[in-house]
Amino acid sequence: MPRYADMSKAELEAELAQVRARYDEMVARRLSLNMARGKPSAAQLELSLPMLDILDAAADLTAEDGTDCRNYGVLDGIPEAKRLMATLLDDEPENVIVLGNASLTAMYDAMVRLMLFGTQGSTPWAQLPEVKWLCPVPGYDRHFTICEALGIQMIPVPMDENGPIMDEVERLVANDAAVKGIWCVPKYSNPTGATYSDEVVRRLAAMECAAPDFRIFWDNAYAVHHFSDDPAEQDAVLDIAVACRDAGNPDRYLKFGSTSKITFPGAGVAAAAASPANVAEIKRHMNAQAIGHDKLNQLRHARFLNEGAGLAEHMARHGALMEPKFRLVTERLEAELGGAGIATWTNPRGGYFVSFEGPAGTARRIVDLARTAGVVMTGAGATWPYGDDPADSNIRIAPSLPPLEELDEAMDVFTCCVKLAALEQLLGA
Amino acid sequence: MPRYADMSKAELEAELAQVRARYDEMVARRLSLNMARGKPSAAQLELSLPMLDILDAAADLTAEDGTDCRNYGVLDGIPEAKRLMATLLDDEPENVIVLGNASLTAMYDAMVRLMLFGTQGSTPWAQLPEVKWLCPVPGYDRHFTICEALGIQMIPVPMDENGPIMDEVERLVANDAAVKGIWCVPKYSNPTGATYSDEVVRRLAAMECAAPDFRIFWDNAYAVHHFSDDPAEQDAVLDIAVACRDAGNPDRYLKFGSTSKITFPGAGVAAAAASPANVAEIKRHMNAQAIGHDKLNQLRHARFLNEGAGLAEHMARHGALMEPKFRLVTERLEAELGGAGIATWTNPRGGYFVSFEGPAGTARRIVDLARTAGVVMTGAGATWPYGDDPADSNIRIAPSLPPLEELDEAMDVFTCCVKLAALEQLLGA
């Protein structure tokens, strides 16, 4: 296929006619396919079914420290669950607080505490005239929703394959004490799949912040979500806790994670890890909110995943189901769009998403066209704060949920819609 | 036994010597007994063990509406869980939001939302110069902790056997718009065991409040926690939702409840019920905090309790374990203290507590004496805001956890400590 930019008007018109005919055929097939959210597939969920057999009526429901997991108590988690979540969060069990079923809730609640109480003696953020937050883009819409709900002003920061552009981050935090933090998905970032380089992690930890209570929300959602079980094919990320300690900013980070995409989304276990001072502060506030989280589910998870020792093997099974889907996505993108020179996309080694950049001004149109043809994508703009992608070019592709055959059909539709939108734009049609 | 008030000094001194000798014997026995918290006993927890067999790897994990309970989604709960929690909350499923594992968290989060966002268009409470809250006393310490954590000023309101003294409540809410709400445990109240009369419920619903956003936090923690399975021996409470609608204040209440003391505390299902306007508002805010709560646990509970139809039978088994303990407590109190005229106590038909009133100025001493003798009671003062019982007279007795034999020993110690403290006071010893 020649590059669209090199084609004559007549050639473009011929191509448009062909693409439009193909699109009309697709619409007529009345498909119903979904690539909107990063949901595990049924086959992935089946990997964790044996976990449901672990705690039955005859099981020992006592934690190793003697806690009866059926009764009240234990604000920060049973020891075996702390070890599991410490493995996931790349930290020590004593720095871990095991929480409810979702890291999203953990992050929202953490932000609410900062708004209501401040941190380590700072003014509660809700009492400040304004609070600003750095949002590497493209990013995760639910992060942005938390900021928007709490009236926190979001500032987009560009990313590259190594993470946020640190010159820009350092400039923004240096002189404005209203800039209180940054969202980070350090490994297999949502949606680009980028993994932060060691230099980016070190600069985040060490940068001079005008706000002494600046906080890095370190959402390590895809910490163990590799496509390959070969460590050489897996991304690694420097531990932000170590980097912050080394830089003399030991309280700057809050780590979050969960088993949502390891066992069952919504029925998993979430956790936070933080510095000793932050752990103590969080537990003091949490004491008014909770007696303890679901210890039976903690025990179930700890035993199923062998307190973290079983994570790699279990995640290899997930990876084996994910890799062919991501391969199919990039192969189809390359085959259909590689020559046209109208789009770029990422090619991650883990996580849940491919980030797609189409021609400026076409993302909404592409997503609309796909919806009309029965393929639901993540809404255009979702990867930017306030749903506002100024270039209207970024689309998040979430290939995990559909079976391979459906994914193939969906990519047919998607690539056709990209061409159609690009041609319409080029021809003013 | 003669009333202490009728005894001569010599008689009191003889009694003190005898009681003190008995107390010293008890201390020497180095007991380790706990009546501090309203925790179900091991025998009660065993009643729900069959629930752990309901969802195994071979079970159908699909909700009736087709939702795969293993995956993301469903912010407000699966239909069968809504029906279960509606039965518990005496409401309609469409007014129910199924939440996480604890009503305490549900109440804290609800209060946080009022602080950050206000309600139905009112000013966020955190932006007001002061927020006051009515606390019927004696009451539940964890309610008070929520207010204290959020800087809400607590105003104690006396209770009698019909609930809070409504003349006082009406006076306090009528002219002070800073008074934003009231804690209510309407049935088998913590700790008095009182159940609100229909008149109290109607007056709460209808009273003129200076604050248009006044909210009743209706913590129906013991809604089905009767000691007898005979409806004639069970307390009933008027539905606050109906009363508020009838009074033209349909948005005044928020109902809370959970299965904590029905199945497994900490591993149960909590829920809120509210007016349609409040449900919509809560869901709008929750959308930033959660994708959905643990649907597998919802399904497990809904099936085990037959969506509410199995509640009465299941709770009758709890009641059969609780009734002998409460009978023992009141019998031992009557036998040991009935004649001395130094104390009163409640005699509830359900719930988890007996409220004990000793001589003014002795509660802390009694609890200290008991602790020294190896019996841990709820801390004196805990039943009052800020831990400050101005009369230093109220003690919460929580008989649910210890087996009957241990409870008998613990009541031996407790009644001995009451007499010792009373005699010390009378004699200035």
Provide structural commentary.
The structure is a homodimer of 429-residue chains. Chain A has 429 residues and is α/β, with parallel strands linked by helices. Chain A has helices at 9-28, 42-46, 79-89, 103-117, 141-149, 166-175, 198-206, 240-246, 276-286, 295-304, 311-337, 363-372, 404-427, and strands at 33-35, 96-98, 132-137, 153-160, 163-164, 179-184, 215-219, 253-258, 270-273, 344-345, 354-357, 375-377, 394-397. In chain A, strands 2-9-8-7-6-3-4-5 form an 8-stranded mixed sheet, sandwiched between helices. The first copy, chain A, has a 3-stranded antiparallel sheet with strand order 10-11-13, with helices on one face. In chain A, strands 1-12 form a two-stranded parallel sheet. In chain A, a hairpin with a 2-residue loop joins strand 4 and strand 5 (163-164). In chain A, helix 12 (363-372) crosses helix 13. Chain A is globular, with a radius of gyration of 23 Å. The mean pLDDT of chain A is 97. At the A-B interface, helix 4, helix 5 and helix 10 of A face helix 4, helix 5 and helix 10 of B.
Name the CATH homologous superfamily of the largest domain in chain A: Type I PLP-dependent aspartate aminotransferase-like (Major domain)
- Our count of helices of chain A gives 13
Distance between the termini of chain A: 21 Å
Q: What fraction strand of chain A? A: 5-15%
Gross morphology of chain A is globular
Number of domains of chain A: 2
The main sheet of chain A comes to: 8 strands, mixed
Helix content of chain A: 25-40%
CATH class of the largest domain in chain A: Alpha Beta
Secondary-structure content class of chain A = alpha/beta
H/E series of chain A: HEHHEHEHEEHEHEHEEHHHEEHEEH
- Briefly note the CATH topology name of the largest domain in chain A: Aspartate Aminotransferase, domain 2
